[in-house]
Amino acid sequence: MVTELSVSPASPFTSTAQSGAADYPGLDNWRSLPASQQPTWADQEAFASAVSELSILPPLVFAGEVDLLRDRLAAAAQGKAFLLQGGDCAETFEAATADRISARVRTILQMAVVLTYGAQLPVIKMGRMAGQFAKPRSSNEETRDGVTLPAYRGDIVNGYDFTPESRAHDARRMLRAYHTSASTLNLIRAFTQGGFADLRLVHMWNKGFTENPAHARYESLAREIDRAIKFMDSCGADFDALKRVEFFSSHEALLLDYERALTRIDSRTGLPYDTSSHFLWIGERTREIDHAHVDFLSRVRNPIGVKLGPSTTGDDALRLIDRLDPEREPGRLTFISRMGAKNIREKLPPVIEKVTASGAQVLWVTDPMHGNTVTSQNGYKTRRFDDVVDEVRGFFEVHDALGTVPGGLHMEMTGDDVAECLGGSDPIDEAAFADRYESVCDPRLNHMQSLEMAFLVAGALSKHS
Ligand code: PEP
Ligand code: MN
Questions:
Q1: Could you tell me if the CB of 349 is within 6 A of ligand 1?
Q2: Measured from the CB, is residue 287 less than 6 Å from ligand 1?
Q3: Does any domain span residue 13?
Q4: Domain-located, residue 70
Q5: Under 8 Å between Cβ of 364 and 309
Q6: Which of 92, 123, 194, 202 is deepest in the core (most CB within 10 A)?
Q7: 341: number of Cβ within 10 Å
Q8: Kind and range of the H or E run holding 452
Q9: Which domain holds residue 59?
Q10: Under the phi-then-psi rule, with left for phi > 0, alpha for psi from -120 to 50, and beta for the rest, what region is 324?
Q11: How far is the CA of 94 from the centre of ligand 2 (A)?
C-alpha cells in the first residue's frame, strides 16, 4: 500500500454529507434516475442516522492512492503491467478474521509472483476485499419449503440466515460494513507493508504447491522462478525493497447510498473521490447507460470497471466509454468481460473491434467466473475449473488475433481449502461440497485451484512476452 499521500494529512477531504455541506454539482443526480438492486430500508430513522454517520467517518482510501492506481492501470492498458484482481464473491462480517484475510492476501501474492514471472511485467495486486458486501440478485425473494423471505443481498443489507429477522433490510449494517472494511484494510496494509510480502517468503510458499505430486506439470516453471530468484540474490538484489508491495482494494459499487455517503471532495484537486475503495466496478445487472449506477460513477475520480456479459454490443461499450471516460483518460476505464467459455471467442471480438476503432484505450480484463456458473447434480452452484481455464484461454486467443492487450484477470477465489468449484489437478468433486462449501454466494476457486490458475495463465503470458 502506498504511504505517501498527495493530500494534506491534516484535512485531506471535505465531507459532502448528503445532509450537509456543499454539494458537488451532479453528485446526487443519480437520485432521480432508476436504480436497480437497491434495498428497501424499513426504518427510515435508522437509515438517516447511518448515512449521516458514514458521511463524517474517515475515508478508507486516499486520493493519492487512487490516482496512483489509475496510473498503474493505464500501464496495464498499454501492455506494460498486468492486473490481478481476486477475492470472495461476497465477503461476510463473520469471515473478516485475521486468518481468512491473511490466507487470501497470501494467495493473491503467491499468484502475483508466478504471473510476474510469466508476463515479465509488474502485476497490479487488487483484492475483491475490504468492501465487497453488496450483492445483486436475480430475484427479490427466496422460497424454502414453502416459506418466502427477502433474498440475501450481502451482509451490508441483510443476513444470510433464513429467518424474517435476519433477512430484513437493516441500514445499520452499512456502518458495520464500513468498520469491517476498515479493519480488513488495516490488516492488508500491515501485511503488505510489514514484511509478510517478502518475495523470498512468497516464493517459499509456492514451493509447497509444486511439491504436491498432482502439480508436477508446473515444476519446470517453478524451477525457472527459483533460478531467477537465486540469480537476483547472487547479483545482490535489494530484497529488503521487495518486502513491501502495493495492494489495492475494490468492490462492486452496488449500494449507492453507501457509496455516496463515503464520497469526499479531495482538498488538493477539489474533485470527488469515492473513498470506500480504490477501484469500483459496475455489475452486469446495473450497467444501463441512463440509470443511477453509471451516472454516479461517472462523477467520481476513481478508476472504474464495468462487467460486460455476452449480450454486450460494441455500441453498448462505446456508450459506456462516452459516459464514464469522456476524456479518454488512460487508466480510467476497465472493461471486465464475463462472456462464458462457450461465448467469448465469438462475442468478445466485435466489442473490442468497435472500441479499438473508436480510439479509446480501455483496460481489458477477463472474469472467467460469472459466465460459467452451473448447478451441480447435488444442487450446489458451481463452476468447472476447465471451463474457467477455457474462458481465460479464449481471452488470450481473441486479443492475440486482434493485436490488442489482454490486461488482467478477475477471479473469485479464496485462500482456504474449500470445495466449491469442480476439478483442478488435485480435483474437487461434488461429494466434497457437503463438508467444504462455504460461500454465501458464488463458488470460489480454493487456494490450490487459484495457484494452479496462476501457473496456467503465466504459461499463456510467457508466450506473449
Ligand atoms: C460478481 O462479480 O460477483 C457479480 C455479481 O458479477 P456480474 O455483475 O458480472 O454478474
Ligand atoms: Mn459473484
A1: no
A2: no
A3: no
A4: yes
A5: no
A6: 123
A7: 21
A8: helix 447-464
A9: 47-197+244-462
A10: alpha
A11: 18
Contact between 440 and 151 under an 8 Å Cβ cutoff? The reply is no
Mean pLDDT by 10 residues, the chain (465 residues): 37 46 82 98 96 97 98 98 98 98 97 96 98 97 97 98 98 98 98 89 91 92 93 92 94 98 96 98 98 98 98 98 97 98 98 96 98 97 98 98 98 97 96 97 97 95 76
Provide the pLDDT for residue 241.
86
| Residue 408 Cβ contacting ligand 1 at under 6 Å | no
Q: Would you give the distance in Å from CA 31 to the centre of its chain?
A: 26
138 touches 284 (CB < 8 A):
no
Domain count, the chain: 1
CA of 371 to the centre of ligand 1 (A): 9
Q: Which pLDDT score, from 0 to 100, does residue 155 have?
A: 98
Write down the pLDDT at residue 395: 98
Overall pTM surpassing 0.90 (yes/no)? yes
Q: Which ligand is nearest to the CA of 133?
A: 1
Determine if ligand 1 sits within 6 Å of the CB of residue 283: yes
CA dist., res. 445 & res. 450, Å (int) = 6
Which atom of ligand 1 sits closest to the CA of residue 442?
Answer: 3
Written as nine digits, the cell of 432 is 466434497
Residue 80 covered by a domain: yes
Cβ of 293 closer than 6 Å to ligand 1, yes or no, is no
Residue 449, in any domain of the structure:
yes
d(CA 254, CA 274): 13
Contact status, residue 396 vs residue 368, Cβ threshold 8 Å: no
For position 119, which CATH number holds?
3.20.20.70
- Angstrom CA distances, 159 to 51, 390, 405, stand at 19, 35, 41
Report the pLDDT value the prediction gives residue 462, as an integer from 0 to 100: 84
Residue with cell 478508507: 60
> Which residue type is seen at 449?
Q
Per-residue burial over 216-242, b = 16 or more CB atoms within 10 Å of its CB, e = otherwise: eebeebbeebeeebeeeeeeeeeeeeb
List alpha helices for 85-172, DSSP H: 98-119, 164-167
- Grid cell, residue 188, equals 492488508
E strand or H helix that includes residue 343: none
Through-space distance between the first and last CA atoms of the chain, rounded to whole angstroms: 27
Could you give the CA distance from residue 297 to residue 424 in angstroms, rounded to a whole number? 37
